[in-house]
Write the structure tokens for this entry.
Amino acid sequence: MKAVDSIDMLIQQPPYYSLGFILAGGSSRRMGSDKAQLKIGQQTMLDIACNVLDAAAVNQHLVVGGTAADLSEQQLGQGPAGAICDVLARFNSASETLRLVLFMPVDMPCLSAYSINTLLECARRNQQTAYYTDHYLPLVIPVTRQTQQVARALISRDPSPSVRKLLAGLNAQPVVFSGDPGELVNINRPEQLAELSSGTE
């Protein structure tokens, strides 16, 4: 766990004015154990996610939920959208600089820094929430008063909302993915993990 300064201070720093958040608080029922700590080769899925964000255009990355959390959700068990809304609510909405937050799941170990940076650039260029078509995560959200209001309103109506509902409320922009489709695959089952692990040997 990192010593977390004010995330407002972290996100205000040049050159990127953005932060990455790894969503690692899922229950992992289908996998049967904490996915963040499962190994692919010599690295855990959390290690892999951290390495990807080390190479991405974000000031810093933080883990949300799970045993290695830098930030703990105020309400546990509310799903990824609940965690995203929780993080959004922690920022000061007043800023003259466009700030971006990227959310990626811990169980997407083939995701590349290039694909993350593409989403960040789309969100920055259009000043709009961005995600890849047919894949709700990863996603990038501008931190504005409006996006925070949408997140708060959604949570007040549904404590455990879907990411799809959050994206609809944010009027998110789908981005066509041009990379390897395998990058956006979630590793949810033991057989998927075994197949991926065998390819690293």
Notes: The domain at 7-178 is CATH 3.90.550.10 (Spore Coat Polysaccharide Biosynthesis Protein SpsA; Chain A). The chain has a mean pLDDT of 90. The first strand starts at residue 18 and ends at 23.
